[in-house]
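INTERNAL AUDIT FORM
Audit reference: QA-55
Scope: verify that the stored structure record matches its stored sequence.
Auditor: D.O.
Record contents follow.
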Amino acid sequence: MLDLQASRTPAQTDVMLFLSRTYKYGDIGVPAALLAGGIIRNDWKMRENSLYVASSTAISYGAMLLIKHLVKRRRPFVQNINIVPVYRAGSTSFPSGHAATTFSTAMAVSNAYPKWYVIAPAFLWAGSVSYSRMYLGVHYPSDVLAGAALGTGTALLLPLKR
């Protein structure tokens, strides 16, 4: 984390802040777009997929909040004064909520639409958002890894109607 901090540049930091903020748009936008597409095209399968993606993300979010409440791990910049965050995130650190929800959305949409042109951008987005959290100094790598595992696991365990 100290190496990431030492290599920060203003341009990279702007990109990482942007990526970090996209999680809301993807987590909400993907199922909303599927629902809208399903309504417009009168496609019941697309509507079901929107519910599957939204449910997976919502369950991951709820599980993440519960784990955060139980573990109460302090943010890296609180535990190590040498880590200077780009901004001071609130709450607790473990697991990363950004990683949990973006990986849940990515895995669920990849399950629903198992095509390379869906899978690659979905996981590139989730991975980029997750990496940004470490770059910004607000999460440990283990926070991000646990969040990614939680989100991916939620999507895999939730049944998808085929």
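Auditor finding: record pair retrieved intact. The domain at 2-157 is CATH 1.10.606.20 (Vanadium-containing Chloroperoxidase; domain 2).
Action required: none
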